[in-house]
From TrEMBL:
Binding site for FAD: 40-47, 130-134, 143, 186, 204
Subunit structure: Homodimer.
Protein name: Aldehyde oxidase 1
Pfam families the UniProt entry points to: Ald_Xan_dh_C, CO_deh_flav_C, FAD_binding_5, MoCoBD_1, MoCoBD_2
């Protein structure tokens, strides 16, 4: 019935805006004439982010998606017409169809457009984003405009009483009447057939292959005089170079009439570089990289056309050298194709995460999913926009006028300890993003609108220290500095054959948990009690900090954590600070306060992994034996101590990775700067210091002429040894992992194959690397690893299990239920876990440092064993009875059916004065071999294959553990190859969302990815001989870093470039391109002489 109703214009009136959805073109044109400034919203992927993130406001919005003229798909004599409201997915499907139906000669434009559509955005974006929206928003990064313009596509525009058709190229090439007026709308786009002798290509390079805006893109078309290679018509358009799509018009006309040969290529590159100005951008990629891409794209077009000419006349056009052929293939993302233990005992089995289905369906409840509490308020924070300044005044008058605003909360409202302050003086701000005050209102929107209206006046203070280098210059460090030393370093340097010195810079990393920091504080109305629902790894510290800020005993604050949507170390102390803000607001207003950080604010305020500099001096023998190492690590701690000194210390303790270094001196410094305070992050300093180690290992290989894997083997721990802080170490499983990984990855034969590939391919190179791992497990001191559990058995036989660990996606509750199931000998389905809470398990230690399962597992086991001991007489009396019968009997005999369990923690210690101790309980081992392929022209790369072998003892749940290894590894790929934090010179973080900050996507997961667990490994120290696995795998992501280095090395060797070169982390496409130096890079940076002949073959 609903379908048969006549369609009519719909109006939706909101508080501030009106949304109109017309049904005919005439109506639309009338509306547009009446509201020329109103945007047409189809997919809302352009307008939406502008309104949300850039404060753009539209009182009227017109939604034209229901108008048939804008959804047309029409094949014509000379091409294809697509309505402007067609989604990009529809356009993709239509083009795919057309390509299969029309002769190849006619579909070259279709193919080029389709190529861009495959990687434009992601599937979700393409399903809603419209063709018209992409063209009309005319963003410089549009992937479609350059190729559509180069291909002579024509736009059909309409306004009231007027229709016209203009080639898209006219708009960007500045030809004729080329402006689209505000009253005009785009009705459709005509994409022409290609003609005989016409070739069309499109290119893009982005920080990540999918779901990332291009750094630079291009569309190019050439038409030859019939039967020749003489250029009749040439079009070249670029995106990403300037503020809009630009045309290399002069270059094209200068080259018309020329033959398609190396002289033309040479001339084209010179002319393009001259014509296409690439202005510097404060936040963007380097200008040189864009310029290199611009000519590299043209070169790729040149090769592609040369190769196509060969198919028309192989006698006259021999095509390109075979070794150049592979660069014409783009990287594609292939989706993967499709003992005597009791059968009931779930331990050691790949049990699915208990909430896995709920995570996938969206049923899992996170903080912001909690139902609203009567009268609840929403909180938005106001943060400092200066890195170091005195607050002169805060004017809240405008903010208080915003409708729905309830109050402004400031430092003066804190009843007791002020956990808000980052420094001793409340009037001084010490980083951009420091919380200055907060607004509470009746909705999230009102709170944010009001927060934006708070005016703060600052008096800027000196110095502003942002980088490690500046901190060193100003001697700005957190104390104490840590040092470890063994052997006689200075003497050893005098006896070695060779010494290298160098440094590597490792960028920071954003936690990028799926659930941003979230709190709901609910005052209970009596006795100063408050429920705090919070996304944290450490409820006890939240309780402590909230109680301290409110000035109440901890027994009035009840913290509840059902689950956390990812944490990675970022939800320890930071969550306490944010929970205190919400609690103070709740206390002041007497209302429940919901405080959910937006992604942008979360990234701005909460800090992340420490940026790192490692400076090294390494002495070694010609046979590859490393005899002496002297290293200094500097980490950028940001503006408060947080855990930076500890991170620096751990980076020292773990720096040896898998190697025995007889003479070693290392220092770690935590730099105090004016960045938001950096904090714990999966791996806790190890991923950085061990990367420094692997870097100098690789450099020793370069210098000695031995392979990196030989240097690794020569220097690896071999037998029972001592670490550099005198802890005993049995490296047997390290060597087993290494050997198994070598074998499983078929390392040597694949290395040979990669070398062979590299000989046959000039512009594409493969690289392969294998890296060992020793990851010490421990928290350095006993009390940090104590744990408790509470287990209740109800009279119906069901069991409620509680422990102090936090579920943050890692599957701890699943494993704890497995433990209880084994101990009580009942099915997992009889056991339930409800929430972690300070009311059931007090004083629980943080779920951190890979220790959650180890320590809580022991406590759960203890509680279950206590219960079983109590039940044993009843079971003995009736051995054939059922669980339910025993429980009923126990209740009737007044046997307590509730028990706590406790684990005292591991006996760990470290004496920093002496530089020795037993800070760890055991070691995890592993090895990873990764193979990559790089495109030397763009710096793009593809992760081809990774094989990991891990020693994690006897896994309690291999499915969950392998998931942890895979997830950590991919997060490591992000750290080492793509995730880049960018700051303004004033210390403002630019990269504040998925738009600017790229974490790995599906396309970055190695096409072949295998994780195997080392067999028959036992660990006497942990529950059921397992090992804590949360963090270790992250470091193995660096096997991709070194595989990329290997590929770059082979490029450089082939081109006779000097062997020593520095690669920093993350090793982005930009760095890879710059390291694959060639005539194009030289052309951009230096001279103009003798450019292309040598590269065109
Ligand atoms: C996460 C993400 C990733 C992205 N990745 C890429 C990428 O890799 N490459 C790329 O090129 N783009 C990318 N984009 C941009 C995206 O393709 C465009 O935002 C989208 O095509 C715009 O279409 P829309 O229907 O959503 O536009 P809307 O947001 O609905 O509208 C955008 C603008 O277009 C105007 N408009 C829309 N239709 C018409 C019409 N018929 N006539 C006149 N004006 C009209 C509107 O007035 C408005 O100003 C990405 C966007 C997002 C959010």
């Amino acid at each position: 019935m609903a379908e048969n109703q006549p369609k009519r214009t719909l109006f939706f009136h909101g508080e501030r805006m009106t949304w109109i959805s017309p049904v005919s073109l005439d109506e639309l044109l009338d509306l547009k004439a009446a509201h020329p400034k109103a945007p047409l919203v189809v997919g809302n992927t352009g307008v939406g982010p502008e309104m949300k993130f850039r404060g753009v406001f539209h009182p009227v919005v017109i939604a034209p998606a229901r108008i048939p003229d804008l959804n047309v798909v029409k094949y014509t004599e000379d091409g294809l017409t697509l309505g402007a409201a067609c989604s990009l997915s529809v356009a993709k499907d239509v083009l795919t169809n057309a390509i299969s139906e029309f002769p190849e000669e006619k579909t070259k434009v279709f193919c080029a457009v389709l190529k861009q559509l495959r990687t434009l955005g992601g599937e979700q974006i393409r399903n809603v984003a419209s063709l018209g929206g992409n063209i009309i928003s005319r963003k410089s990064t549009s992937d479609l405009n350059p190729v559509l313009a180069a291909s002579n596509c024509v736009l059909s525009l309409a306004s009231r009483g007027k229709k016209r058709r203009i080639p898209l190229s006219d708009i960007f090439a500045g030809v004729g009447n080329n402006t689209i007026t505000p009253e005009e709308i785009l009705v459709s786009v005509h994409i022409p057939h290609s003609r005989k002798g016409e070739y069309v290509c499109a290119f893009r390079q982005a920080p990540r292959r999918e779901n990332a805006l291009s750094i630079t893109n291009a569309g190019m078309r050439v038409l030859f005089e019939e039967g020749t290679d003489i250029i009749k018509d040439l079009s070249i358009f670029y995106g990403g170079a300037a503020s809009t799509t630009v045309c290399a018009k002069q270059t094209c006309s200068a080259l018309t009439g020329r033959h398609w040969n190396e002289q033309t290529l040479d001339e084209a590159c010179r002319l393009i570089l001259k014509e296409i100005a690439v202005p510097g951008s404060a936040s963007g990629e380097k200008v040189d990289y864009k310029k290199t891409l611009i000519i590299s794209f043209f070169y790729r077009f040149f090769l592609e056309v040369l190769q196509s000419l060969k198919t028309t006349d192989p006698y006259h056009y021999p095509g390109i050298p075979v070794e150049y052929g592979s660069v014409l293939q783009d990287f594609k993302t292939k989706m993967p194709q499709k003992p005597d233990q009791s059968p009931q005992d779930p331990v050691g089995r790949p049990i699915m995460h208990q909430s896995g289905i709920k995570h996938a369906t969206g049923e899992a409840v996170y903080i912001d999913d909690l139902p609203s509490v009567d009268g609840e308020l929403f909180l938005a924070v106001v943060t400092s926009s200066r890195a170091h300044a005195k607050i002169v005044s805060i004017d809240t008058s405008e903010a208080l006028k915003v409708p729905g605003v309830f109050d402004v909360i400031s430092a003066h409202d804190v009843p007791a300890t002020n956990e808000f302050y980052y420094s001793d003086d409340p009037e001084i701000v010490i980083c951009v993003g420091q919380i200055v005050c907060a607004v509470v209102a009746d909705s999230d929107v009102h709170a944010k609108q009001a927060a934006a209206k708070v005016k703060i006046e600052y008096e800027v203070l000196e110095p502003v220290i942002l980088t490690i280098e500046e901190a060193i210059k100003h001697n700005s460090f957190f104390e104490p500095k840590r040092k470890l030393e063994q052997g006689n370093v200075d003497q050893a340097f005098e006896t070695v054959d060779n010494i290298i010195e160098g440094e590597i810079h490792i960028g920071g990393q954003e936690h990028f948990y799926m659930e941003t920091q979230s709190v709901l504080a609910v005052p209970k109305g009596e006795d100063k009690e408050m429920d705090v629902y919070v996304s944290t790894q450490h409820p006890a510290v939240i309780q402590e900090m909230v109680a301290a800020s409110l000035g109440v005993p901890a027994n009035r604050i009840m913290c509840h954590v059902k689950r956390v949507g990812g944490a990675f170390g970022g939800k320890l102390l930071k969550s306490g600070l944010l929970a205190s803000v919400a609690a103070v607001a709740a206390k002041k207003t007497g209302r429940a306060v919901r405080f959910i950080l937006s992604r942008g604010d979360d990234m701005l305020i909460t800090g992340g992994r420490h940026p790192f500099i490692g400076k090294y001096k390494v002495g070694f023998m010609n046979d590859g034996r490393i005899r002496a190492v002297d290293v200094n690590y500097y980490i950028n701690g940001g503006c408060t101590p947080d855990e930076s000194v500890l991170v620096a210390a751990v980076s020292l303790l773990k720096m040896d990775n898998a190697y025995k270094i007889p003479n070693l001196r290392c220092w770690a410094y935590a730099c105090k700067t004016n960045l938001p305070s950096n904090t714990a992050f999966r791996g806790f300093g190890f991923p950085q210091s061990a990367l420094v180690t692997e870097t100098w290992i690789t450099e020793v290989a370069d210098k000695t002429g031995l392979s990196p894997e030989k240097i690794r083997e020569i220097n690896m721990y071999k037998e029972n040894e001592q670490t550099h802080f005198k802890q005993k170490l049995d490296p047997q499983n390290l060597i087993r992992c290494w050997n198994e990984c070598m074998e499983k990855s078929a390392y040597y034969s694949r290395k040979k194959a990669a070398n062979e590939f590299n000989k046959q391919n000039y512009w594409k190179k493969k690289g392969i690397a294998i890296v060992p791992l020793k990851f010490p497990f421990g928290l350095g001191t006993r009390y940090l690893s104590q744990a408790s559990a509470l287990v209740h058995i109800y009279t119906d036989g069901s069991v409620l299990l509680t422990h102090g660990g936090i579920e943050m996606g890692q599957g701890i509750h699943t494993k704890m239920i497995q433990v209880a199931s084994r101990e009580l000998n009942i099915p997992m389905s009889s056991i339930h876990f409800c929430e972690t809470s300070t009311t059931t398990v007090p004083n629980a230690c943080a779920s951190a440092g890979s220790a959650g399962t180890d320590v809580n597992g022991m406590a759960v086991k203890d509680a279950c064993q206590t219960l079983l001991k109590r039940l044993q007489p009843i079971i003995n009396k009736n051995p054939k009875g059922t669980w339910n019968e025993w429980i009923k009997e126990a209740f009737e005999q007044s046997v307590s059916l509730s028990a706590t369990g406790y684990f005292r923690g591991y006996n760990e210690n470290m004496d920093w004065e002496k530089g020795e101790g037993q800070p760890f309980t055991y070691f995890l081992f592993g090895a990873a071999c990764s193979e990559v392929e790089i495109n030397c022209l763009t710096g793009d790369h593809k992760n081809l294959r990774t094989d990991i072998v891990m020693d994690i003892g006897c896994s309690i749940n291999p499915a969950v553990d392998i998931g942890q290894i895979e997830g950590a590894f991919v997060q490591g790929i992000g750290l080492y190859t793509m995730e880049e934090l960018k700051y303004s010179p004033e210390g403002v973080l630019y990269t504040r969302g998925p738009d600017q900050y790229k974490i790995p996507a599906v396309c970055d997961i190695p096409e072949q990815f295998s994780v195997s667990l080392l067999s028959s490994s036992q660990n006497p120290h942990a529950i059921y001989a397992s090992k804590g696995i949360g963090e270790a795998g992250l470091f193995l992501g660096c096997s991709v870093f070194f595989a990329l280095r290997d590929a770059v090395t082979s490029v450089r060797n082939e081109r006779g470039l000097k062997t020593t070169f520095v690669l920093n982390s993350p090793l982005t496409a930009e760095q890879i391109r710059a390291s694959c130096a060639d005539d194009f890079t030289e052309m951009v940076t230096e001279s103009w002489g003798g450019v292309c002949s040598s590269v065109s073959g």
